[in-house]
Design a protein that fits this description.
The chain has about 325 residues and is an all-alpha fold. The chain has 13 helices and no strands. The radius of gyration is 20 Å and the shape is globular.
């Protein structure tokens, strides 16, 4: 009897590993973003140092665990990984691993130069590969409009994060390449996705959280532009930041759309964009000393903390119920 129970438990464990989703790296993105929020809040707003230090350890451990588990999945279930990599929707989440490394580079920027540099280098290389692979995939496959969703921003527009992580590590001219690619495709994909959302079928419930991703490109683009532009809050910087504000308040206005959604790991798409606009608001306040931007930073930081806490608790609860890493 004990052997049968053990066999069943082993089988459950194997199945969980087989269906461990690449989307799990969105957890690292959200927590890394929150870590940077508290690091910047100590620098700009004067609080949050201890919380930031704790989050550095937490996000580092979670990144290592998720990476190791997925590497084991690649070794044991390579066909399942290949299937995931060839999926018209899931392929867009693979670059979340590269973005996680870039965010960790930012986290460690003032803590450990070597960790920061090598995280950036590996993340930038992976992001470059995923960009070319994903665009080639889109060109070579017969994609349908219903395949599109805001997660399309991740593999291409994610390039805008490279200058944020690479500032002070490599030449600005190299960073400008990534900024140009990311901003160019942000404009194109925004037009495609707004057309899809307004004039075609609604997003599936599990992808509703990805609407938050609309916030991230202008917020990260603003931070990247300021870093490469010597810290000037000029007209284009103001343009990007105000677009980030627009998409943030639009999402807040549509809050009813997100109430009562069934849990999916895609809930973590709520998190990183909120931290991105929080950091952008802190930077805007630092550069301009406009008090309104400071209030925005406090507001977005509070919302980000609440949302991440709720998503984390719900994720843990569903993990214990066996509703995570299952076949869909």
């Amino acid at each position: 009897m004990d052997e049968k129970v053990k066999d069943v438990c082993d089988q459950i464990e194997i199945n969980r590993l087989k269906f461990f989703p690449i989307m799990m790296f969105a957890i690292v993105m959200g927590l890394a973003g929150l870590t940077i929020v508290f690091q910047k809040s100590q620098e700009i707003l004067g609080f949050g140092g201890i919380v930031g230090d704790i989050l550095v350890m937490l996000v580092s451990i979670i990144f290592i665990v998720i990476s190791l588990v997925y590497i084991i999945k690649i070794i044991k279930y390579l066909p399942a990984v290949k299937k995931e990599f060839a999926h018209p929707i899931r392929i867009n989440f693979f670059p979340a691993s590269a973005i996680s490394l870039l965010l960790l580079s930012v986290v460690y920027h003032h803590i450990n130069h070597d960790i920061s540099f090598y995280s950036f280098l590996l993340g930038a290389i992976m992001q470059t590969f995923f960009t070319f692979y994903t665009i080639s995939f889109w060109i070579n496959q017969n994609l349908e409009l219903h395949h599109s969703n805001p997660a399309w921003f991740i593999p291409i527009v994610g390039n805008v994060l490279v200058p944020v992580a690479g500032a002070g590590l490599i030449d600005t001219n190299i960073l400008m390449y990534y900024f140009a690619v990311g901003m160019f495709f942000w404009i194109i994909l925004t037009a495609i996705l707004i057309n899809r959302i307004i004039f075609h079928h609604q997003l599936a419930a599990k992808f509703m959280p990805t609407l938050f991703i609309f916030i991230a490109p202008p917020a990260i683009g603003f931070i990247a532009y300021v870093k490469m532009n010597g810290g000037d809050f000029d007209l284009f910087a103001s343009f990007l930041y105000n677009l980030a504000l627009f998409f943030t308040f639009l999402i807040f206005f549509m809050y009813k759309n997100f109430m009562g959604l069934k849990f999916f790991i895609s809930w973590w798409a709520f998190t990183f964009p909120l931290t991105a606009v929080t950091i952008a608001s802190m930077l805007a306040y630092k550069l301009t000393h406009i008090v309104l931007y400071k209030y925005f930073a406090y507001l977005f930081m509070l919302v980000a903390c609440i949302v991440i806490l709720l998503v984390a608790i719900t994720t843990i609860r569903n993990m214990f119920k066996g509703k995570v890493c299952i076949q869909e």
